[in-house]
Design a protein that fits this description.
Elements: E1 14-17, H1 19-23, E2 29-30, E3 36-37, H2 42-53, E4 57-61, H3 67-75, E5 80-82, H4 88-99, E6 106-109, H5 116-121, E7 124-127, H6 133-138, E8 141-142, H7 151-162, H8 166-177
Parallel strand pairs: 1-4, 1-6, 4-5, 6-7, 7-8
Antiparallel strand pairs: 2-3
Length: 178
């Protein structure tokens, strides 16, 4: 696959994120009661919050289904959450259509083989440092950070800085938090 140009970053309006291996380190903890737990990175949440102040939207497409994904999405004000999706392209197309966007306006972050079709279609694809080899090959950008360790923050910051929006969004976020 030919890598998309850095100029595509300038068109991004929406970030779509995988969960296990991107928003988390991919580990799944199952307690004695059968309840599932996931560890999320606060830095990723901070990056999402800053991007929200700049007008960017987010969506989640996860191959697994877990209550905690809904909880975290609500905290991060992510309203488009698709869980238990094994053919991620269908959810991707639904999100794109509902938001009236083009492929070139979407950044997708994925780490596994299941993510590759969307990574190849979106405007800008990113993978965490510890993504599988095939996902890295499909990515336009490979993070320095691993999944669940700030890779989403890194992606968001890269896009906003390229668009010249990072500093203004940070100032707006700080002002609103006071």
């Amino acid at each position: 696959m030919k890598k998309k140009t850095a100029e595509n970053i300038n068109k991004i309006k929406l970030f779509i994120l995988d969960v296990d291996g991107v928003l988390t380190d991919g580990g799944i903890i199952i307690g004695d009661s059968g309840r599932e737990y996931k560890k999320f990175c606060v830095k990723d949440g901070g990056g999402i919050a800053v991007a929200g102040k700049a007008g960017f939207k987010f969506a989640i497409i996860s191959g697994r289904r877990s209550e905690i994904i809904d909880v975290r999405a609500k905290e991060l004000k992510i309203d488009a959450v698709y869980q238990g999706v094994h053919k991620k392209m269908e959810a991707y197309e639904e999100i794109k259509k509902s938001r009236g966007l083009k492929d070139s306006e979407i950044c997708y972050a994925g780490d596994e083989i299941i993510d590759i079709p969307v990574m190849e279609k979106c405007g800008f694809a990113a993978a965490p440092a510890d993504a599988v080899r095939e996902a890295k090959a499909a990515a336009d950008y490979i993070c320095r950070a691993k999944g669940g360790s700030g890779c989403v923050r890194e992606i968001v910051e890269k896009v906003l800085k390229k668009q010249g929006l990072w500093d203004k969004a940070v100032k707006r976020y700080i002002k609103d938090e006071k």
